[in-house]
Each structure stands twice: as structure tokens, then as C-alpha cells.
């Protein structure tokens, strides 16, 4: 039954792919953690708007006004979706990576940054000019809070500090104790940014309730694949930072000086960091996805997804050769993201076989979280290439892993096919 099976219809459910064994099969997209399929609703909304596309904040013409309205209403929708506080800003970016780089560029002078080594590279790497403290991988959520507490207690208490943490791991799917980490950060006068790239598509998110200072996420993982992302949160650091990009849209007033130079007055709103013509379609798509997820009700989405998580976990547990990767232990709560290795198999070959023989799309590699995956695999650093890993020799320990991930619109059949194929 379509309505029971797919409470939120997504695109690409009927794509036929050829099998090496002959014939064809409908594609099972089980790589939501990389990019989720678009919601049908997002596609419909974008298609309805596209003929009326116009420039944003740039004209008196009807289409320009319409586009500006859509763009600014989308900002309000995202603010509502995230439960933003009155004085929060919602800045539209290209992606989570872009959002965190924007925040990194807006850090006050001498800001110390605290980040677990287990983070995705998008959260681990943007803080290049800051004083970064890399925290060791915790093995329980409580240990994560203790580790952070200890690091913050030892910090220079007078300078600004920022903690960056992921809400749900893109490797293990495990949920991090965001609220407790936020409380620890604030108790030590630090701020906290939440990388919600994997949390936002799978879990209700409330910036005020979690008491985090900023949230970053990507449209393409939230069923809205048109090249946009979000950084939402406290206005003060953003308002006093240099514009992320210099150009039109970010500047309020520009004038030649008598000495021949140029004086610029920058906006103090989100526009300060949105120079250039913005991606109105991408932004509208995110707002459309936010509305669709809210209307569908996260409770039923989470409940359904957890049923699929259990199905995968139980299925994999029946295969002796499979080892599921976990930082916080087998019973830790997780979203629909599960990584594993299979004894005797090279993970890349395994993923290729799932695709070629069963029409199942999963991810293999180190998932842009090299330190975390190496910790979980117990392997030494190697030259991994682009987000990947070299091949293990037959009989060697795996140097990379396989990841299966799913969410809204995933039919039971895809997950059942996957478990059957692994078996
Ligand atoms: N953080 C996490 C936890 C992620 O899973 C990803 C994407 N894999 C990112 C950040 C980066 O997202 P994007 O590539 O959309 O910038």
C-alpha cells in the first residue's frame, strides 16, 4: 500500500537498472546519507515556481518581487522548522560544508575551537586559523560530555570558544548527546555549533530546546537537492564578521572616497553573508522539504525508520562475517545510517557486487570521516585517495567500510533485498 509504505513519496523509486546476471530491477537507493532522493512535493513545488523564476532583491518587476517573496518566506519557514529564537539569523549557503566554513570565517579573534576527532571532515577541518583542540574519540555519550568538560575546564577562560559537534554520525548513525554537550559548552562560556547534516533529515530539531548557538545542514540530504544549505543561529558573531563573500547583495551602501578608495557599508542581516544572486530554487526547495516533513509528522517518520533500522540490524546480526561499526555500543540509538565490514571481503568489491548483482546503491570508503573510520576499524592511516581507501589484500583487515542508509520513502522491499543480498 503506497500510503503505508511511503508516507512521503520520493522520486526515483521506479528507476530500472541492469543486472550483470541479466535482466533489470528497480534501483534500491540506500545511500541517503550521501544524498537523499528528492521528495515528490519538493519536485512539484520547484516545477510550479520555475517558470516564474526571477532575481531576488533586485527589481520592481513582478517575477522579481515574487522570487523575493518566496526567498524571504523560505527563510521564515526554515526558522520555524528549526525552532529559531527571535534574534537568530538564517543564512542560506551552498551546503553544510559551506555553512561551517562561513562560521569558521566569522570566528572572533583568538577563538579556541573544540572538536572531536570523530567528526565528518566538514566539521573537523574548517577551523584552520583558530586554535583547534582535537578531542579523542569517546566510547559512550557520557564520556563525550566528560571529555568536553575536561577540555573546556582547562582552556583559557577569557577568550571566546566554540564547540563543533555532529548530531548524528554519518558513519555509525549514532546520536550524540547534543543537549548535554551544549550545556557543558555554555557552562564554560563557550558556544556550540551543531552539524545537523545527518540529524535534520531523520529527527525533529529545535535549536532553542537543544540550546545550541548555530545549526548547519544541507538541502540535498534533506530531500531537497538543488544546491543549497543553511547556517542558522546567533546573529552577533555573524553581524560583526567580515562578509563571507564581498559583492552585491551583501553591501548596503558603496561610495567612492575623496582619496580614491571605496567605502562600504555592509548589511547586518543574513544578507551580509549572501553576496551575489542567491540560489532561490535551492532555497525554496529546502523550505518545501521542511514543510513536507513537518506536515508528515516526524513521529511517524522516525517510527517507520526505526523499524527499518531494526530490520537491518537483525538481518546483519544473522551473518557471522558481518561486523557493524559502532562507537557507543550496539544498543546506542541511531538514525537510518549503518556501516559495517564483512570478513573476507574488500568493502569496495562488496558494494560493487550489491550494485551489479542486486541493483542496490550503498556507499563504500571512509565516508569523509577518516579518523573515525580508522578508529572503528582499528587500522593505521594509509593514503586514502579522495574520501576512499586503498584495497585490502585478501585476508587482510578491511581498510574501509560499507554504509547503508535510508529514510523517508524507503520501501521495506529495498531493505529486505539488501539484507537478503548480504546474506
Ligand atoms: N556533516 C556530515 C555529518 C555529513 O554527513 C556531511 C555529508 N556527508 C557533511 C557534513 C557535509 O555535507 P555537504 O557535503 O552537503 O556539505
What does this structure look like?
One of its GO terms (molecular function) is transaminase activity. It holds the Pfam family Aminotran_5. Residues 30-418 form the Aminotransferase class V domain. It comes from Streptomyces chryseus. There is one protein chain. The chain is an alpha/beta fold. The chain has 2 domains: 2-30 and 297-422, Aspartate Aminotransferase, domain 1, CATH 3.90.1150.10; 43-295, Aspartate Aminotransferase, domain 2, CATH 3.40.640.10. The chain is built from 14 helices and 17 strands. The protein has helices at residues 2-5, 40-49, 62-82, 96-105, 121-124, 141-153, 178-187, 207-210, 235-240, 280-296, 298-317, 347-358, 370-377, 412-422, and strands spanning 16-18, 24-26, 28-29, 88-93, 112-116, 131-135, 161-166, 191-195, 214-218, 229-234, 251-256, 262-266, 322-324, 337-342, 360-361, 363-365, 401-405. The strands form 5 sheets. Strands 4-10-9-8-7-5-6 form a 7-stranded mixed beta sheet, sandwiched between helices. Strands 13-14-17-16 form a 4-stranded antiparallel beta sheet, with helices on one face. It has a two-stranded antiparallel sheet with strand order 1-2. β11 (251-256) and β12 form a beta hairpin.
Entry keywords:
about 425 residues, alpha/beta, Aspartate Aminotransferase, domain 1, Aspartate Aminotransferase, domain 2, 2 domains, seven-stranded mixed sheet, four-stranded antiparallel sheet, about 35% helix, globular, binds 4'-deoxy-4'-aminopyridoxal-5'-phosphate, transferase, PyrdxlP-dep_Trfase_major, Aminotransferase, PyrdxlP-dep_Trfase_small, PyrdxlP-dep_Trfase
Amino acid at each position: 500500500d503506497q500510503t503505508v509504505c511511503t508516507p512521503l513519496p520520493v522520486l526515483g523509486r521506479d528507476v530500472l537498472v541492469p543486472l550483470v546476471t541479466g535482466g533489470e530491477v528497480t534501483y534500491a537507493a540506500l545511500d541517503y546519507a550521501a544524498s537523499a532522493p528528492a521528495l515528490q512535493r519538493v519536485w512539484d513545488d520547484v516545477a510550479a515556481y520555475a517558470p516564474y523564476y526571477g532575481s531576488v532583491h533586485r527589481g520592481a518587476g513582478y517575477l522579481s518581487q515574487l522570487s523575493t517573496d518566496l526567498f524571504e518566506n523560505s527563510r521564515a519557514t526554515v526558522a520555524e522548522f528549526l525552532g529559531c529564537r527571535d534574534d537568530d539569523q538564517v543564512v542560506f549557503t551552498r551546503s553544510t560544508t559551506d555553512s561551517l566554513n562561513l562560521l569558521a570565517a566569522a570566528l572572533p579573534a583568538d577563538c579556541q575551537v573544540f572538536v572531536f576527532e570523530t567528526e565528518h571532515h566538514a566539521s573537523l577541518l574548517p577551523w584552520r586559523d583558530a586554535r583547534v583542540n582535537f578531542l579523542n574519540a569517546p566510547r559512550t555519550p557520557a564520556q563525550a560530555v566528560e571529555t568536553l568538560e575536561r577540555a573546556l575546564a582547562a582552556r583559557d577562560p577569557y577568550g571566546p570558544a566554540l564547540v563543533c559537534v555532529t548530531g548524528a554520525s554519518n558513519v555509525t548513525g549514532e546520536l550524540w548527546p547534543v543537549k548535554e554537550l551544549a550545556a557543558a559548552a555554555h557552562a564554560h562560556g563557550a558556544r556550540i555549533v551543531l552539524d545537523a547534516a545527518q540529524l535534520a533529515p531523520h529527527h525533529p530539531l529545535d535549536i532553542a530546546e537543544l540550546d545550541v548557538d548555530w545549526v548547519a545542514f544541507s538541502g540535498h540530504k534533506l530531500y531537497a537537492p538543488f544546491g543549497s544549505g543553511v547556517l542558522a543561529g546567533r546573529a552577533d558573531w555573524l553581524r560583526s564578521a567580515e562578509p563571507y563573500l564581498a559583492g552585491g547583495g551583501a553591501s548596503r551602501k558603496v561610495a567612492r572616497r575623496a582619496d580614491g578608495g571605496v567605502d562600504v557599508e555592509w548589511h547586518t542581516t543574513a544578507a551580509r553573508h549572501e553576496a551575489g544572486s542567491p540560489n532561490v530554487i535551492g532555497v525554496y526547495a529546502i523550505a518545501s522539504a521542511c514543510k513536507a516533513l513537518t506536515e508528515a509528522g516526524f513521529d511517524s517518520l522516525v517510527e517507520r525508520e526505526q523499524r527499518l533500522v531494526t530490520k537491518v540490524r537483525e538481518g546483519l546480526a544473522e551473518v557471522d562475517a558481518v561486523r557493524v561499526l559502532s562507537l557507543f555500543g550496539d544498543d546506542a540509538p541511531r538514525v537510518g545510517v549503518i556501516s559495517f565490514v564483512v570478513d573476507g571481503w574488500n568493502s569496495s568489491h562488496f558494494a560493487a557486487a550489491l550494485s551489479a548483482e542486486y541493483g542496490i546503491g550503498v556507499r563504500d570508503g571512509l565516508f569523509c570521516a577518516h579518523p573515525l573510520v580508522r578508529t572503528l576499524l582499528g587500522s593505521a592511516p594509509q593514503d586514502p585517495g579522495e574520501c576512499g581507501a586503498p584495497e585490502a589484500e585478501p585476508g587482510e583487515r578491511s581498510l574501509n567500510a560499507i554504509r547503508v542508509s535510508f529514510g523517508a520513502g524507503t520501501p521495506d522491499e529495498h531493505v529486505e533485498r539488501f539484507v537478503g543480498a548480504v546474506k
